[in-house]
């Protein structure tokens, strides 16, 4: 029952330091997650407490195998947890049925997977249109919005390509377009720039920030890429299954 009040001092906030109270978009309390059973069981998350505020872009860093992807999957409701509470955009994921959770995720979240998870038989534009089609958007409109989003990630000339005919970085950009197309309230990104060169990584982070971060939205980005730290408002470090520190990111003065 520690830190149940979501105390701001232990969270090292806020990004802009303007003193205004920001509403909590994601509240994680006492999250525990193990894989396997018996002697081979591994506890990956050992009691995570974390707040993410509306209007911010939170970076999540930490050693490989430390549990970052596991935490993102739990927050997105893709993974069942063993203990703790997860409150996302004002709803308790912990108490939702799997079906309700899936619909809730489709309506409110975008997820950029570490493995791109594109559907191999669909073109780039069709892949990007999938979240809209699931929401009931008509095919013609979904595809046209898909193509527009692909233009924004610099792939306007690749909309009808299948994933296997795209480079790794291009596939990553299709996955990013798919996560952004329905303008999610919570955007969850697992190493979104890992397959991209410097300029494309910067461009994509600008897009993620512009689309994802608004007063009524927030973004969580797992990354090892120090070149994109400047896009974050705060950085949380996950080590050995625990959040060991959260601090605001000092922004360089921009012209
Ligand atoms: N489905 C699973 N079954 C068993 N173990 C798993 C499963 N998923 C993850 N793990 C284990 O949980 C640990 C954390 O994995 P996770 O993918 O969350 O790490 P990560 O911090 O994202 O690492 P990386 O930076 O390399 O992506 C790893 O030791 C991994 O082997
Ligand atoms: Mg990972």
Describe this structure in words.
The chain is an alpha/beta fold and 255 residues long. The chain has a domain at 22-116 and 185-248: 3-Layer(aba) Sandwich (Rossmann fold). The protein has helices at 8-11, 68-75, 98-108, 124-134, 139-152, 168-180, 198-212; strands at residues 24-35, 42-53, 57-61, 83-88, 91-92, 109-112, 186-190, 218-222, 234-239, 242-248. The strands form two sheets. Strands 6-7-8-3-9-10 form a six-stranded mixed β-sheet, with helices on both faces. α7 links the parallel β7 and β8. The chain is globular and about 50 Å long. It starts with 7 loop residues before the first helix and ends in a 7-residue tail after the last strand. The site of magnesium ion has 4 residues, from α2.
